[in-house]
Write a structure and sequence with these properties.
This protein folds into six domains: about 1-130 and about 355-465, 3-Layer(aba) Sandwich (Rossmann fold), CATH 3.40.50; about 140-210 and about 325-350, no CATH class; about 215-315; about 470-520 and about 535-600 and about 755-905, Rossmann fold; about 605-745, PCRA, domain 4, CATH 1.10.486.10; about 935-1135, Lambda Exonuclease, Chain A. The chain contains 41 helices and 30 strands. The strands form eight sheets. It has an eight-stranded mixed sheet with strand order 13-16-12-17-20-11-22-21, sandwiched between helices. It has a six-stranded parallel sheet with strand order 3-2-6-7-1-8, sandwiched between helices. α40 links the parallel β27 and β28. It is globular. The two termini are about 70 Å apart.
């Protein structure tokens, strides 16, 4: 540790897995502070926030122990850790470090690179050209913004842009446009602006050996046709007379090509000529004609071969031209998208995470502010430490290099040495998809070494090859796998052999390799009417999951076993179907094995969340039969398959109408009535409750959580809880509405990441990427037979060339030679990263490593570049071959009986929680709230007798709520249109947005809306300055001191110079007695009070428009005053 503790010298540490990188960083921090460096002069950059928290925790734990440690013991500790003999002054200083670290202004700077950049930009926003109040863009908000921008680009009015996007979308999968946009924005520094697109395409055209970027493909095809047509006639004649059917088919293809070419349709002629010489996959045909034809017509056969070579060259140029054209389309789409994205962020005053790095680099490199900013930063910074340096991207290194540039300038102002310290491991660079450059670790070591030497300093290179984590057998297996230089390619930039030294020499480890699982395909002769089983009960994947579960059960329950489920880690490469199979197999063991679930969950894919959202979708649109059917079949609806079929089959109208009619029958089943009651609640509250309250109250008050958990178990808690968290996030960013929330959720995958870093008593199932930095006594690697090439996610439709260009990534059959070279490079990079991923996976194990695999449905053996092939080639020798207890072949290193983990005392099982008393299971009485959120439309008198107006239904027979909603919408939109255009617009609106409404009902709705608009008495209601759907918010104090937080919308708001009139639309008809329903009076009284307090100098009047009869009634002021007094006295209830 002496080079690490040398405070006057920079150091670059290359540390094997498990060698103690965090220990080394803490040691460096302590050494610097003991050398007299103030804690606030240190900057330690980590890759993740959890790593920063762990490092700070370890540092504080060490320093706090030193505070009260006896001198003799403290001296031993310091000497062991720093390889120095401390004097009395050093011991005194060591005891003060804990207090100094705690009292550092702003705290110790142990943070992520993004956190550091954010702090710099917050400190210098003006110099960086940012708003001082800028904030970070939330991931979900960014997805929603990007989706809106993509829609705007697709629907652009520019005909050239529309044509360009149309060409692009024809070559992309349905859902790939959003992925393409995401990749463009993630690499926006690589795309040219609109004015630079031509120059960039010209450069790419030269690389592809094309004449220019805008040349016409038709010209190329025409030139080829003119040269080839004269010689094709004898070929067609000879082939058409051939005896072999395949030869005659070739003649027909040539004839079709010639016919189109003579007509000048060269683009449509090309596929016929291509079919003569190429297979459907795009490869040259192995044989153009039969041997008999070749023998009979040697010159013609030879001419075909020569033409085949010419067609191959032509096809390559056509593929290149198409790729270049699509690259241009991508560049134009990208330029507009990036500009719109930057504008949208600027308007909101937000930055995304990439902006933090870009803006900081711009700040540190702009001549106008650099010297001032660097001067301010430089005075407070003397040492930079970088953790996980192998995962640092080039842009992040640029920030670090700019900060450290003054360190090596030989500035006399700073007499004390200033250093850069980095620790990492090239072999564990597995985040290239996030911008990490695996070769950057070695490049930056050379860069800082040269800088240090030029400035008269020292750069120590410290290799740490002793692993303190894994047992010797684990490390031996790792070294064996990567002993072959071909398998180790990509692990170390300099090609250094992979070698580990075990620290735990006295401990026994164990490695076991299983044969891959396979399932024989049943040889069943299905009858023509039989449907093959698309999802067979037995698969190789499920067999492996059950074998692993059985192995874990035997390990845990073996006599004298010290293993617990929390000691076991199952690592996969992708979160695919195997994860669900594995979790299910663990739970089906006897007794069930506790499992923590997957490390990341797609919330929207969870069945409990789908059920809740189905209910919400139905509440917004009662004509959505599919959403209603999903709800009814869920635990929330409670209907069985037969019940739903009986309800839906043969119905007249919507499923909701059928359900209501079934519930009206005296013989209706209780389950139908219960489902209808829940659905009524969902529909009633959809317009009034914010999303969080809507779902929270449904889960609690309406028994939704109890119904879901009764059938699905406790697994619903995490996804349902995350749905509620998402609702809170949405409400913090947007005006709360259920429709908006559902749209917001649909913008992208909502993931729940479980914290697997904390100690758990359950088996963990994780991806290798998620397990980076973790360890476990026992590790299983089941996902080893997949080919690493083709399985790793790649950028949708994009190649990123080494020279910085971005190109269209075509299908394999449509690639030109340059595209093939780019694909080969991409495959090679993916293969290298797959090797590094295998290294990370194997080195997570402390004591035992079990490796399995499963074959695909065809039983294809693992290819040579799979993990399984690597492990079998190194471990699958006759010397290691064994039989397990069930007689299956295995290969192993070490003695399983002696393998750890070994503990001084058996680990006690987690303490059982005490019995919960009965009172704790009872719902507490709801305490009165000082402020209660209320919608004015919820207000009702305490003893409410429905009036005729409230009970009245539309003459069409349509549900009053649906009728009123549609009429309201039309009355909001139609007044702004010319009178002659209103009827057509109303019919178009109903046809487009409300397809579930019958034609008769639609006509009735349109007639009601138009009748109101055309009535002479309604002219003031819809003429200027009347405004529609005005939000009214405020508080109303009751006589008992309680406050009501009121929030609602008034249908029409008419403000004149000295008066304001508030109008609300009602669907029914007024009571014949002329009296108004008390609920209406309470609602309008509250609206009048809110406006009167906001506009005290104006007279406020209220009115009701009855939409069925086009009548306006003005409400008496005295009755409104009385209704308001009833509310203040508390004489009201809530609907």
């Amino acid at each position: 540790m002496k080079p690490v503790a040398q405070a006057s010298a920079s150091a670059w540490v290359s540390a094997n897995a498990g060698s103690g990188k965090t220990y080394v960083l803490v040691t460096r921090l302590v050494a610097l502070m003991l050398s007299g460096v103030a804690p606030e002069k240190l900057l330690c950059l980590t890759y993740t926030r959890s790593a920063a928290a762990e490092m700070q925790e370890r540092l504080f734990a060490l320093l706090s122990d030193w505070t009260l440690m006896p001198d003799a013991k403290l001296a031993v500790e310091i000497e062991a850790r720093l390889e120095m003999t401390p004097d009395a002054q050093t011991l005194r200083l060591a005891r003060t470090l804990f207090a100094r670290a705690l009292e550092t202004p702003g705290g110790l700077r142990i943070q992520t690179i993004h956190g550091f950049c954010e702090s710099v930009l917050k400190r210098f926003p003006i110099e960086a050209g940012l708003s001082p109040q800028f904030r970070l863009l939330e991931e979900q908000q960014a997805r929603a913004m990007q989706a809106d921008l993509v829609r705007a680009q697709i629907n652009t009015a520019d005909p050239e842009r529309r044509a360009s996007i149309a060409r692009l979308t024809r070559h992309l999968a349905e859902d790939a446009m959003a992925q393409l946009a995401g990749n463009i924005l993630n690499h926006r520094d690589k795309f040219p602006a609109n004015e630079a697109i031509g120059a960039r395409l010209e450069k790419i055209a030269q690389t592809m050996d094309l004449p220019d970027w805008a040349f016409d493909i038709e010209v190329l095809l025409r030139a080829h046709a003119e040269a080839y047509l004269p010689s094709v006639v004898p070929l067609i004649s000879a082939l058409s007379q051939a005896s072999a059917k395949s030869d005659r088919a070739q003649g027909e293809r040539l004839e079709n090509w010639a016919e189109h070419a003579r007509a000048g349709a060269h683009a449509s002629a090309w596929p016929h000529l291509e079919a003569v010489f190429m297979t459907k996959e795009g490869a040259p045909r192995a044989r153009l004609v039969t041997a008999a034809f070749t023998g009979a017509h040697p010159p013609i056969a030879e001419a075909l071969v020569e033409q085949g070579d010419a067609v191959a060259v032509l096809r390559n140029r056509l593929n290149a031209a198409q790729a270049l054209a699509l690259t241009g389309d991508i560049y134009r789409f990208a330029a507009d998208l990036i500009a719109a994205y930057e504008t949208a962020k600027s308007r909101l005053g937000v930055l995304d995470y990439d902006d933090l790095i870009v803006a900081t680099n711009r700040l540190l490199s702009s001549r106008s502010a650099t010297q001032w900013v660097l001067f301010k930063i430089d005075r407070g910074l003397e040492h930079i430490l970088v953790d996980e340096a192998q995962d640092t991207s080039p842009a992040q290194w640029q920030v670090i290099a700019a900060l450290a540039d003054e360190f090596f300038a030989g500035d006399a102002v700073h007499a004390a040495p200033r250093t850069v310290f980095a620790v990492g491991d090239e072999k564990q660079s597995i985040y290239s998809f996030q911008g990490a450059d695996p070769a950057g670790f070695e490049k930056m070591r050379s860069f800082f070494a040269e800088k240090s030497e030029a400035g008269g300093g020292t750069m120590n290179f410290v290799p740490l090859i002793e692993s303190r984590r894994s047992a010797p057998e684990i490390l031996a297996a790792v070294d064996l796998v990567f002993a072959d230089p071909a398998r180790a390619e990509g692990l170390m930039a300099a090609g250094t052999p992979v070698h580990h030294i075990a620290h735990r020499l006295k401990d026994a480890g164990y490695v076991e390799l299983w044969e891959p699982e396979a399932v024989e395909t049943p040889d069943t002769d299905l009858q023509i009417w039989e449907v093959p089983d698309a999802a067979p009960d037995e698969t190789a994947r499920r067999k492996l999951a059950r074998r692993i579960a059985a192995k874990i059960s035997s390990l845990i329950h073996a006599p004298d076993s010290q293993l617990t489920p929390g000691d076991i880690l199952i690592l996969v490469r992708r979160r695919d179907a195997f994860v669900e199979d594995m979790i299910r197999a663990l739970k089906q063991e006897t007794p069930p094995i506790e499992v923590a679930g997957a490390d990341r969950m797609n919330v929207m894919a969870q069945i409990a969340v789908k059920d809740l959202l189905a209910g919400a979708e139905f509440a917004l649109n009662s004509d959505d039969d599919m959403a209603l059917a999903c709800f009814l079949r869920s635990p929330l609806g409670g209907l069985g398959e037969d019940d739903l079929f009986a309800l839906a089959h043969g119905r007249q109208g919507s499923l909701w109408r059928a359900l209501v009619e079934a519930c009206d029958a005296e013989s209706a089943a209780p389950v139908l009535r219960a489902a209808c009651q829940r659905l009524d609640w969902l529909r009633r509250e959809a317009d009034y409750l914010p999303p969080y309250d809507y779902f929270a109250r449904f889960l609690s008050e309406q028994g939704g959580h109890a119904a879901l958990s009764a059938r699905l178990g406790a697994e619903i808690n995490d996804p349902v809880g995350e749905l509620l968290n998402l609702a809170l996030v949405y409400e913090s960013q947007q005006a709360p509405s259920l429709q908006g929330f559902l749209h917001w959720l649909a913008q992208g995958e909502q993931s729940l990441k479980r914290d697997m870093d904390v100690q758990t008593h359950a088996v963990r199932v994780m991806t290798v990427h998620g397990a980076k930095g973790l360890e476990a006594p026992v590790v299983f690697l089941p996902d080893t037979c997949a080919n690493p090439i083709g399985h790793r996610p790649q950028s949708a439709g994009l190649y990123f060339a080494a020279d910085g260009d971005v190109l269209w990534r075509a299908n394999a059959s449509e690639r030109d030679e340059y595209g093939k070279a780019l694909q080969d490079r991409l495959d090679a990079d993916n293969l290298k990263e797959a090797r590094r991923l295998l290294y990370v996976a194997m080195t997570r194990a402390r004591d035992r490593l079990y490796v399995g695999g499963y074959l695909n449905k065809r039983g294809t053996p693992p290819s040579a570049e799979t993990w399984y092939a690597y492990l079998h080639a190194s471990l699958g020798t006759d010397e290691n071959k064994r039989q397990d207890a069930d007689g299956r072949t295995i290969w192993s290193l070490g003695d399983e009986a002696r393998a750890g983990p070994q503990r001084d005392a058996p680990r006690e099982p987690p303490a059982q929680p005490p019995d919960v008393p009965a009172w704790a299971r009872q719902s507490p009485a709801r305490a009165p709230s000082a402020v209660k959120a209320v919608s004015p439309s919820q207000l009702r008198p305490l003893a409410s007798v429905p009036s005729k107006a409230q009970e009245e239904k539309p003459a069409s027979g349509l549900d009053a709520r649906v009728f009123g909603t549609h009429v309201h919408a039309l009355l909001e939109k139609l007044p702004d249109l010319p009178r002659h255009a209103r009827e057509a617009a109303a019919q178009t609106y109903m046809a487009r947005f409300h397809t579930g409404v019958s034609a008769a009902d639609s006509d009735a709705i349109c007639a009601a809306a138009l009748g109101v608009l055309d009535h002479p008495d309604m002219a003031p209601v819809f003429a200027a300055p009347a405004r529609a759907e005005i939000a009214l918010v405020g508080q109303l104090s009751l006589h008992d001191g309680q406050k009501l937080a009121l929030s609602g919308r008034i249908d029409r708001y008419i403000e004149a110079d000295d008066a304001i009139m508030l109008i609300d639309f009602k669907t029914g008809t007024p009571d014949a007695s002329g009296e108004f329903a008390p609920a209406i009076m309470m609602q309008m009284a509250v609206y009048r009070d809110l406006v009167a307090r906001a506009k005290p100098d104006k007279k406020i009047t209220c009115g009701i428009v009855w939409t069925q009869i086009a009548r306006l009634d003005r409400l008496p002021a005295a009755a409104l005053d009385a209704a308001l007094e009833d509310i203040r006295a508390g004489a009201f209830a809530l609907a």
